Amino acid sequence: MTEKRYDAGDIEILEGLEAVRVRPGMYIGSTGKTGLHHILWEIVDNAVDEAANGFATEIRVSLNKDGSASVEDNGRGIPTDIHPKMKISGVEVVFTQLHAGGKFDNHNYSYSGGLHGVGASVTNALSEWLKVEVYRGTVYRMEFHSYYDAETKKYHSGKPVAPLTNTRKKTDKKGTYVCFKPDASVFETTRFDFDVVSRHLKEVAFLNKGLKLTLVDERTESPQTVEYCYEGGIRDFVLDINKDKTKLFPTPIYCSGEVDGIKIEFAIQYTDAYTDTIISYVNNIPTPEGGMHEVGFKAGLTKVLNDYARKEKILKEKDENFLGEDFREGITAIVSIKMKNVQFEGQTKTKLGNPEARPATESFTVASLQNFAAERGSGVVMDAIMKKAQGAAKARLAAKNAKELSRSKNAIESINTLGKLASCRGKKPEQNELFIVEGDSAGGSAKQGRDSLFQAILPLRGKPLNVEKKRINQVLENEELRTLISALGTGIAEKFDIEKLKYHKIIILADADQDGAHIRSILLTFFYRYMKPLLAAGHIYIGMPPLYKIFKKDRVEYAYDDKELQAKIELVGRGYQIQRYKGLGEMNPKQLWETTMDPESRSLMRVSVEDGARSEELISTLLGDNIVLRKQYISEHANFNKVDEFIKLKK
Ligand code: 1YM
After folding, report:
1. pTM (two decimals)
2. Which residues is 253 bridged to in the sheet?
3. Which terminal Cβ of the chain has fewer Cβ within 10 Å, N or C?
4. Catalytic site residue from 272, 345, 513, 598
5. Using an 8 Å Cβ cutoff, are 302 and 385 in contact?
6. pLDDT of residue 222
């Protein structure tokens, strides 16, 4: 690569920072935990870009005792020369100037060269202070801070304390160091979560092969350190996702190349699972809603494998082609592309909209897999894929021939299966809520206690089917799930249509014990596998019944965890009594309404998909084959006051 000299004049016309403070949500999505970590990713992103452009090989992140976080890379260092038009240093531009029209989604800049640093100014704007050091022969330093001016009654964000200074101190190091302290008056929490940061850096390491990322937690007694570096890149990613699964061949298929200026790479491995796991990225940003690159990849995969099946006479002349879904049964694939001018679409703006990405990805997938098949034609890999597809197609055809599938599909449209559902009177999906309640007795209380205008109740008898190990026809045969599907109105899998959703809040209400946790896992897995857009759009919630009732004479208080219990005991004072709820069934309709269902007083947790790989891993741990792993996980994380770990709290 030829080194493009930085020309400070390249940086586009930019605008001021106060806007970020006024509407942080516009720039970082939320001011909760997700938003807090987002401002760290902005700095990490710049370091990663520097590595992706071939100038840095290592990134070090540390979570410091004083609540700050620092990121250091060994790249070229942010430009220190003076911007000819703005008359300030490159460093100052990067940390004080917002890209004109900067919105929450500020990742649509070009992937190499060109405009970077769009987000670093957002981090600065939302920090109490931020310090930068650039190592370019000598150490350059600059500091910014945010403060309230009592005289003008104005808040100032990310203001330079002084211009960039060359300390003249010699250094052998190269690169950039950034340290910042998130502003406690902006964020609901300012504590970085080691696990969240660690998982993010691991994902970054998979997507940037050979890049070394280190995370140090300085906040603990003895510093905790993790290091990630994957020479295999997304091949290692696939192996990691499949580590507890039964693989059909040991080494993932891997292809990389470039078509029409779009860089494309993918890695594929098959397991004995019945579902597919395709995780896609654009410019290292996850696209859980898929989009053009995923569509192109799937189309290419189907075409090559059908052609191969014909050529090898696995499909006879009279046979119909395999369907795409047949070739995706048991697949684990990562598709990662890099392109300019990315456009995001979809409910959560995580779907790639650029039409040109589709033919590029499709033609690349076709060409590279054809090549792979030609070279490895008679090998175990193609054989395994063909056998898997034959199995999937056979099951699909058998189900169809027996009219089972069509029957169950009709059944889904009929209202006969809705017998147990107590629907609500209101006709506005945006206002309606569906409670999925564990057990008939709690279901009964919920039916009596609810506000039937907008709350519908679906009681579950026993445990629903664990879909993790089932094909779609078995899912459709399961009465419990059929009722749920028809109640929601959306259909499932390829036929899923979010426009038809009848309840915008779907609330899982299960006991705070191990069985309840299992039921939550099973239901969430079902939503994850067959109705993922519901999770992506934030329609799924976990109801939080109280764990304790504290009472004295007529006075009644409820506590949802042990900390709250102490507070409530103090509130009620001497002579109190405590009842510990073992299950929802112990509450009468009125209590259930007051504590768990009344929008005025209940608390709900919204479930969101953290990232594809993480959800995959947890689902296979919680519901897959490996019982030892599951037991170990449950005993380590068995805090049923909290929601299972693969879902994260959003306000
Ligand atoms: C710890 C965070 O920000 N590293 C970093 C940032 C930049 C460069 C190098 C860089 C980019 C370019 C030229 C270029 C940035 N520069 C800019 C801007 N690490 C961290 N390392 N020279 C150096 O893209 O041409 C924005 S980010 F805009 F000033 F060029």
Report:
1. 0.76
2. 268
3. N
4. 513
5. no
6. 93
